[in-house]
């Protein structure tokens, strides 16, 4: 099979969503509505946290960065997909494809690390409430978020540098709606054993370690709550941690569906559906999950709305 060097590679072809042409209009409207809901909902969360001094706490500081990451994760995949649906233009430049892959890996990893940081915050708040202010001081919170951003950037840069050294086959068709790392590796005619090794080791560690941290934090939280049985305390803990647990379950469930439990044969449609849930549905649901079950966010929203009506 003929190969092409990456320096001469002009573009890739994205097959997009597995839909019929007569369904394009409905799909475009649906995904545009979901994307706008994601952006506006997460921006509202960031705005409320910024404006309300009662929300200037570690938990909401982490939540604001998670909201920013969710906006970015959707923005690098959904608008290009909507453009392709609208113009029926499937091609994407080589540089644009590599850039999209880099930022997708970056913000996907960032979500992963921020969820682990938020779980640790809940562990300290519930298991060591008297030491919470001393432990979760501003310097530590900033360091945790900065570290999450740093490791996510390094993680994405590592996989990008390993990818751009590869040559690609004449077949440039990607059976997806965005440039996914695994889909690009399948198009390579070079030896990808190093790429696979790094994905399995470094990528696996960045998946397993945060997940283990989250599970360990909630096991300790559960043991602390059950040690002194109290319905009131249980309900308070569930109210505090329920939203985060739901987001964690949704995030890791769909992520596992994309990268771990997809079958090797005829799995492209299933991978696309799982990716839609991971990149579109989950970021859209996060603002509703955190606001509907969070009294502080709802109070901040009520104050914001009343102030907006006052200045009309």
List keywords for this structure.
312 residues; mainly alpha; three-stranded mixed sheet; two-stranded antiparallel ribbon; 5 strands
**Helix content estimate:** over 70%
Which structural class should the secondary elements be placed in? mainly alpha
How much strand content do the residues show? under 5%
| Measured distance between first and last alpha carbons | 67 Å
Helices and strands, in order, run as EEHHHEHHHEEHHHHH
Report the principal-axis shape: globular
Mean pLDDT: 83
Instruction: Report the radius of gyration as a whole number of Å.
Output: 21 Å
Count of helical regions: 11
Largest sheet descriptor: 3 strands, mixed
Unreliable stretches (pLDDT < 50, length at least 5) are: 1-7
Order of strands side by side in the largest beta sheet?
A: 3-2-5
DSSP summary, beta strand count? 5
Notes on the protein architecture:
By secondary structure, the chain is mainly α. Helix content is 74%, strand content 4%. The protein contains eleven helices and five strands. It has helices at residues 24-51, 58-75, 78-87, 94-127, 132-135, 138-164, 181-186, 193-227, 231-259, 268-292, 295-310, and strands at residues 3-4, 11-14, 91-93, 168-169, 173-174. A three-stranded mixed sheet has the order 3-2-5. The protein is globular.
């Amino acid at each position: 099979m003929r190969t092409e060097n990456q320096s001469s590679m002009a573009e890739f072809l994205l097959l997009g969503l597995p839909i019929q042409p007569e369904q394009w209009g409905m799909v475009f409207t649906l995904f545009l509505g979901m994307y706008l809901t994601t952006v506006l909902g997460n921006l509202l969360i960031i705005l409320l946290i910024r404006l309300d001094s009662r929300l200037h706490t570690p938990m909401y500081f982490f939540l604001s960065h998670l909201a920013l990451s969710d906006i970015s994760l959707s923005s690098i995949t959904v608008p290009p997909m909507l453009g392709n649906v609208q113009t029926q233009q499937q091609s994407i430049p080589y540089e644009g494809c590599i850039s999209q892959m880099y930022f997708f890996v970056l913000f996907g990893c960032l979500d992963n690390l921020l969820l682990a940081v938020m779980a640790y915050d809940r562990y300290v708040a519930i298991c060591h409430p008297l030491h919470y202010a001393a432990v979760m001081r501003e310097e530590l919170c900033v360091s945790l978020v900065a570290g999450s951003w740093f490791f996510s950037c390094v993680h994405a840069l590592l996989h990008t540098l390993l990818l751009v050294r590869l040559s690609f086959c004449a077949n440039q068709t990607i059976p997806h709606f965005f440039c996914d790392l695994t889909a690009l590796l399948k198009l390579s005619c070079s030896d990808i054993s190093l790429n696979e090794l790094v994905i399995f080791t470094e990528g696996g560690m960045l998946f397993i370690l945060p997940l283990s941290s989250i599970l360990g934090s909630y096991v300790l939280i559960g043991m602390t709550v059950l040690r002194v049985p109290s319905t009131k305390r249980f309900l308070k803990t569930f109210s505090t941690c329920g939203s985060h647990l739901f987001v964690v379950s949704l995030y890791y469930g769909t992520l596992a569906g994309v990268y771990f439990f997809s079958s090797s044969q005829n799995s492209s449609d299933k991978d696309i559906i799982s990716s839609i849930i991971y990149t579109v549905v989950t970021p859209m649901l996060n603002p509703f999950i955190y606001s509907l079950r969070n009294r502080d966010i709802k109070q901040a929203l009520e104050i914001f709305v009343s102030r907006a009506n006052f200045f009309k």
